[in-house]
Design goal:
The protein has about 220 residues and is of the alpha+beta class. The chain has helices at about 20-30, 45-50, 60-75, 95-110, 140-150, 160-170, 175-190, and strands at about 1-5, 10, 10-15, 35-40, 55-60, 85-90, 115-120, 120-125, 130, 135, 160, 200-205, 210. The strands form 3 sheets. A 6-stranded antiparallel β-sheet has the order 2-1-7-8-9-10, with helices on both faces. Helix 2 packs parallel to helix 3, helix 5 packs across helix 6 (about 160-170) and helix 6 crosses helix 7.
Length: about 220
């Protein structure tokens, strides 16, 4: 998950480096900086990853990027939003995360709002836009709010009453909250093309509430 807001930046980072030792050092420094990081040593591993998940940042060895950039850019074609690509040289591992955090905070200022990413789901508060697997999906305001709350707490069950309180701003008993949400959840699944029988992505936890979780996570 990527959350850009209130000065906190947690990035989904893909490290690409042909040298295993250097790649692991970058990976560990990214994790220590609080980012969700993955490592790929070559183009094949890179293409396999970006086919499943669009990273926020791609940190790539400069020489590797010069040799394989065409294949990488071809794989990223059509992705929205495009990841920021950061070429690196040597082992300047620690300062790179500080520079990237500043860049992403600046990006937040330019776009005028928080961006939340959970796997292939992107919620851009500034543009009031939802992007699912690279394609924009139009959601009415209440459904946009529901997805925002669930994305901000991805991997956690949000109770019916908590969800209604955060979206509608009212306190409701659980049966009332459940009925209020039911129609909207069904419409969100339809708009995203989700199969409720498979329990994918937007999961109903019987007796408790809803949870946002993606297979690639």
């Amino acid at each position: 998950m990527t959350k850009i807001g209130n000065g906190t930046v947690h990035l989904r980072v893909l490290i690409i480096h042909p040298d295993l030792k250097a790649g692991e050092q970058f990976l560990q420094s990214a994790i220590q900086a609080g980012h969700l990081a993955h490592y790929a040593p070559d183009l094949r591993g890179t293409l396999s990853f970006v086919a499943r998940v669009i990273p926020d940042i791609i940190v790539a060895d400069r020489e590797w990027l010069e040799r394989n950039g065409r294949g990488l850019f071809s794989a990223l074609q059509g992705c929205s939003p495009l990841p920021l690509i950061c070429p690196v040289e040597g082992v300047d591992r620690d300062s790179v995360w500080e520079r990237l955090a500043r860049a992403m905070r600046a990006f937040q200022t330019w776009t005028g709002g928080e961006v939340v990413r959970v796997g292939s789901l992107v919620i851009d508060h500034g543009r009031k836009q939802v992007i699912w697997r690279g394609q924009p999906v139009q959601l009415p305001p209440l459904q946009f709010k529901i997805m925002t709350v669930l994305a901000q707490r991805a991997g956690q069950v949000v109770s019916h009453t908590d969800l209604v309180r955060e979206v509608w701003g009212i306190d409701a008993e659980d049966p009332e909250a459940r009925e209020l949400l039911k129609v909207h959840i069904r419409q969100i699944r339809k708009r995203l093309g989700l199969d409720p029988e498979r329990g994918e992505v937007l999961v109903s936890v019987r007796g408790f509430g809803y949870m946002l979780t993606l297979p690639e996570d």
